[in-house]
């Protein structure tokens, strides 16, 4: 047994991250697959099936799908 180890309640950790993001101005989008992310003048345009989102900053948290946002050589398409 590891006596100095801790534990994490993943649901609480995820909810805390979402709350902190929302409280700091993030607009959270769920069940909105991203079709493309590209620059548009001095902003970033995120295209989903149902809407376009123009943003100053974008955080990609695509997990195993992150590769879909990169061209060859590991460089972002935006």
Q: What does it look like?
A:
The model has no long low-confidence stretch (mean pLDDT 85). The longest helix has 14 residues, at 10-23. This protein starts with 9 loop residues before the first helix and ends in a 23-residue tail after the last strand. Strands 1-2-3 form a three-stranded antiparallel beta sheet, with no helix packed on it. It has 78 residues and is α+β, with helices and mostly antiparallel strands. Helices cover 18% and strands 22% of the residues. It is elongated and about 55 Å long. The protein has one helix spanning 10-23; strands spanning 34-40, 43-48, 52-55. It has one helix and three strands.
Helix proportion: 10-25%
In whole angstroms, the N-to-C terminal distance is: 47 Å
In total, the number of strands is: 3
Q: What's the helix count?
A: 1
